[in-house]
Amino acid sequence: MFKGIQIKKYKQNRKFYAKELSKYVNLEEIAELFLEGRGMIIKEHPTNQDITVKTIVAALARVGHFDAQVEAALFWQYWQ
Questions:
Q1: 67 conformational bin, left if phi > 0, alpha if psi -120 to 50, beta if neither
Q2: Which residues contact 13 (CB under 8 A, 6 or more apart)?
Q3: How many domains does the chain have?
Q4: What stretch of H or E contains 49?
Q5: How many other CB atoms are found less than 10 A from the CB of residue 17?
Q6: Which of 16, 17, 27, 70 is the most exposed place for a label (fewest CB within 10 A)?
């Protein structure tokens, strides 16, 4: 059984809910958790589609982990 943080993204309000933390989290908090080495699975509700990679990439871009050119390319690849 997975022992990391399970996060659901709710389409109707575009929020992320971290079940184990019992709170809504934003992209900055997701990036922080990732950089701390915390394991996580991020799934879209209600489809249960795994969106972990694209969400972590977006979160890292949000906190300035990539330069502007990479950020723009990643945005278009994952969110369009």
A1: beta
A2: none
A3: 1
A4: strand 49-50
A5: 16
A6: 70
β partners of residue 27: none
How many CA atoms are closer than 13 Å to the CA of 7, on its beta-carbon side? 26
pLDDT tens string 7-51: 999 988 889 999 999 999 999 999 999 999 999 999 999 999 999
Domain hosting residue 21, numbered range = 5-79
Parallel, antiparallel or unpaired: strands 40-45 and 15-18: unpaired
Tokens representing 73 are 């390319």
Token pair listed for 49? 């589609």
Per-residue pLDDT reduced to its tens digit, 58-78:
888 888 776 666 666 666 555
| Nearest C-alpha neighbor of 42 from the set 4, 75, 6 | 6
For residue 40, give the amino acid letter: M
